[in-house]
Automatic annotation (TrEMBL):
<keyword id="KW-0472">Membrane</keyword>
<feature type="transmembrane region" description="Helical">
    <location>
        <begin position="185"/>
        <end position="214"/>
    </location>
</feature>
<dbReference type="Pfam" id="PF13231">
    <property type="entry name" value="PMT_2"/>
</dbReference>
<feature type="transmembrane region" description="Helical">
    <location>
        <begin position="157"/>
        <end position="173"/>
    </location>
</feature>
<keyword id="KW-1133">Transmembrane helix</keyword>
<feature type="transmembrane region" description="Helical">
    <location>
        <begin position="375"/>
        <end position="394"/>
    </location>
</feature>
<keyword id="KW-1003">Cell membrane</keyword>
<feature type="transmembrane region" description="Helical">
    <location>
        <begin position="6"/>
        <end position="26"/>
    </location>
</feature>
<feature type="domain" description="Glycosyltransferase RgtA/B/C/D-like">
    <location>
        <begin position="82"/>
        <end position="243"/>
    </location>
</feature>
<keyword id="KW-0812">Transmembrane</keyword>
<feature type="transmembrane region" description="Helical">
    <location>
        <begin position="353"/>
        <end position="369"/>
    </location>
</feature>
<dbReference type="InterPro" id="IPR050297">
    <property type="entry name" value="LipidA_mod_glycosyltrf_83"/>
</dbReference>
<feature type="transmembrane region" description="Helical">
    <location>
        <begin position="401"/>
        <end position="421"/>
    </location>
</feature>
<feature type="transmembrane region" description="Helical">
    <location>
        <begin position="101"/>
        <end position="120"/>
    </location>
</feature>
<dbReference type="GO" id="GO:0009103">
    <property type="term" value="P:lipopolysaccharide biosynthetic process"/>
</dbReference>
<dbReference type="GO" id="GO:0016763">
    <property type="term" value="F:pentosyltransferase activity"/>
</dbReference>
<dbReference type="InterPro" id="IPR038731">
    <property type="entry name" value="RgtA/B/C-like"/>
</dbReference>
Amino acid sequence: MAQQYKRLWITGLLFFIALGIELLYIKSYPVRYFISPDGYLYSNIAENFLQGKGLMNTANFAEGVNHVVQAFPKTRDYVIGPVYPLLLALIYGVFGFKSYAMVVMVLHGVLGAASAVLAFKTGELLFGKRYGWIPYVLTLGYPLFAFWGMYVLTETTYVLAIWLFLYYSVRYAREISRPKLTTLLILGAMIGVSNLVRPLLLLYFPVLGFWIFWMKGWRLKQALRDFMLILFMTVVVMSPWWIRNELKYHQFIAVSNYGSYEFYLGNNPRTITNSYFVMDQPSYDPAVKARIDKLPLLEQEKEYKSLGVSYIVSHPVLFLERTFAKEKNLFWQPVSPEEGQAYKMKGAFLDKWYLLLGLSGIILSIIWLKKYSFLLLYILYYSFIVSMITVVSGGRYRLPVMPAMILVGSLGFVLLLQGAGKLLRRPGRAPRRLA
């Protein structure tokens, strides 16, 4: 019991240290928050929920002259994953509507600190209790986690969801011979929750199934049992949202009802692979867009999705070449000094060093492939899926893969410390006598 209280005390101390660092970073900015059209949309949905209108938007938002975001009458009903709007509603219920600064200070500060604690816990499981502080420090030191937490956006919430997913993946790997039922169910729940923030793990199950099958020593029956329990819990967590969407919109909507245009931008004969300002580039056929823009919004989504899928099926080799080009030129590119200055980031130059650290860890982890395979598979999956879907910059959209990069990057520090420890523990040799 005393040991348990000690662990709780240490966890609480780590949390409040992390929270203090998060708040110091937030206070270092001359502004109290950043908000974009997406942020206003999330906020609008949260306000409507508190007013009893449900999780729906009553206005649309766009960036106008001088980058000022303006509201205009609703032209479409956006369906957005419910987790982040509900968290905003919680903050608004306590501090009042449009309390954006409190979203950043309270919600994002607490979630960011919780992510650091989970980095510590995951590091303990993965490397041993003496080394949990390494991913903890690296998480607090990565500047883009804090920077994007200044925005009223899903980034901080989604990063926490990914840390939970990785933590329970480690627990499952440690229990692989006889996994606990609670570990399997919580892992499935974490996948479901992460999808209800942003649906980027929806396609992860083939990768997960392969990993479990391999970890089980190719024993199909045992692997299938674990996989089905994880999948079952994911469905349980997500099904209320599916039922709600079916009742309200009379169609199956897994998480969101938009994004097909971005998918088309990323997958058509004119797709560019080296610039993410897609609206300013010849990355789509104007005639095709003009035709589709005349259709009802729901039909536009279906048409853009159909065109993107058709392109992939018709040009599989070119599709792969373009996706890997987007990974190389965009997803894995560090934040440039120009981009950091334009966004007024602090410490953006560290991004390239974190990427190099993660790359070195990936190379080292191949030596112990089975132990670190879940991290490598997740990194490969996520970078491919994001690059496949659309044309995006690495700085923001790479954020959810950085927890895995920090974990593999921590491996080098662990090996150095372990090596130093062995040298210090070696018994001293008697000095040789001079003749």
